[in-house]
Structures are given as C-alpha cells and as structure tokens.
C-alpha cells in the first residue's frame, strides 16, 4: 500500500475547510483509539448494498468498511462507498476514480457516506455527486473514502497527507473485493482538502501491491502555506477578517492534535473562542460557523501560548515540497476566493521544481465549487490519455 515520505496561506486553509458544510453519519466525534486491525491495508471488512443510488449511472453501490493505516502506520478501519458502472467491464476491468472529498468537519456526524437529501452537507455533496456520476457514466468505478476518523473510531487527522493518501489508496484495493470487474488501473482525484490528498497520493514512495496508480487530479487544492495560519491571526488587531476565518481554525487544531498529542487545542485557544472548538467536536462546518463569536484577533490565541509545535506540524503537511511520482493535473478557477489562483500558481511552480509531469488548467469565472463541473471534461481527457499511454500536456517549463 502507499506510504508517504513527507519531504493565499489562509485562503488555502479556507478552501480546504469550507467546501462541505457537514454531513450526518452517526453521532458526535469520538476520541477513543481505533481498535487494532490485524489485516493488511485494503482488506474489505464489510460491504452493504445501497438501495438508493447516489450516482444514477451506477449499476450498483455499496457502503463498505476496510482496513488502512493512520499517519504513524497503525492499522485502522475506514468507511466509504463504491459505485460501479452499468457498462460491462473491459478485459482489464473498469478503471477506478478514487475520490478525495472536501472538508466536512472532524466529528463523526460529518462522514460523507451518510449524506442524504436535505442533509447538512448535501448542497456540496450533491453537487459533487453530479460530477462523479459523469465518471461512472463514462465507464469508471468511483470509490469515495470518508477518511480516517469520520464515521469510524478515532479522531479525524484533518489535512494529514499520509493518512489521507493511505485511505484514498486502500479503498481501491477494497473495492476489488466487492466486484471482480474492478480493475487495477486507478486515479486519485480530489477537490480542496481532497486536492491536497490527491497530491500526497501522487507523491507516494511506493505503489500499492496489485494496483497501478496512473495519475492524479487535484482540483483547487488546499493546504498551501497552512503554517502561516497562526500568523494570520497574530498579525491582525480588532475583528476585521477574524469571523470568516475562525470557523476553520478548530478543525485545523483538532486535526493536528489527532496526530500529535502534544498539540492541545484548549491550551492554545483563548476562552472567547472555546465555543467554536466545542462545536467542532460535535458538529460540522455550518454548525461551527454558527457558533463562531465576534472576537478580536488578539484574543483568538491564549496570551503566551507556544504555537511553535502547531506551526511545525502544519509546515510538515504543506504540499508544495512534494515530489510527485505520477503525472498530475491541477485545476483552478479564477474567481475562487477560498483557494486563490495566485496561490495555486505558486503551488504549481513549486511542484514543478521536483516533479516531472504536471498539467495546469485555469477556468475563467469559475469559483470554488463551479470549477468541479467546469473542469470535469479536462480531467476525463487527462485520464483517458494516460490509459491510452498518450503523454498529457506538461505545464512545467524545462531549461
């Protein structure tokens, strides 16, 4: 299985945090450790057929649980869904799109697999499903991981590249145990937080056994320069710019603490913003936003709080230092105020310094969500070119 070697700022954080506003799964967040899982990563643990098709072009859909590994390599259980096409599988099996979703939150109620019409995240998840249905109609299997800690035991390590890449990879192996028509060729495709996950998957230092990762598509990727999150608040005074950003800070802190227990959100945040932290442990982004108080920037963090450990962790999860090992396509909208085009321009430039093949396409007038539908035809051309062994366009200039 893939295991990674880890080798503006605020707008990237916001993009990773806003795109989904919550989803119903079970109940509140869980803090108990995940039970030991002895099976190899990608082992199917359970499979339940779904009566209601989220993707109308699918012949069948299943809610599954499968084994994976957390950021430290410890075995865990992750949930997700598998959707297979109506068309008969080709000789090599259907190719697979492993979808990495945008932020829903860190509480168990935010697992996207439990989305339903009228649910707290349906405005986003329903929009995503429209795009994913186009992949199924084109003959691809679509698998959607919930990520570690969403709907399963343990905390969700928000924006941890290693954990997300493991979940994105291992669900493909699990899907091959659901339907024999699922092939070994696959692509990591994600949006916002999931765009970050797709980049970390593309940087995996080894291929998963029995699979062939052909490429990755990163749409409006989050995570760029997230280590500057702390300075965003520290360099401001008063209330300007705080209320919009505040709902995403506890999500980031809880995610960091899930990996590094030395990061204790309660010791870093001021008393005025504790309601936001409390909300983040039980609800999703809309509920967190509603709980966000009006607070001055200088009161966001506790006076004298040592933010060095948090900043160092966030730095380790920034995607700009990755060396991508498979062809990768980055897609960006010009009117995206959550992941800015200038920020993504910088990210692509940085990735080009270490990676051999990166495509980059920009969509005039598309915002953070509109870029999903606008870019899908280009993303599909990219995957089809790679499946046909055609070289995709390369945006990286070489001397």
From TrEMBL:
It comes from the Bacteria. InterPro entries: AB_hydrolase_fold (IPR029058), Hydrolase_4 (IPR022742), Lipase_secreted (IPR005152). PANTHER family: LIPASE 5 (PTHR34853:SF1), PTHR34853. Residues 1-25 form the signal peptide. This is Serine aminopeptidase, S33. Residues 24-51 are annotated as: Disordered. Keywords: Aminopeptidase, Hydrolase, Protease, Signal. The keyword Manganese does not apply. PROSITE patterns: PROKAR_LIPOPROTEIN. The keyword NADP does not apply. Residues 122-368 form the Serine aminopeptidase S33 domain. One of its GO terms (molecular function) is aminopeptidase activity. GO terms for biological process: lipid catabolic process.
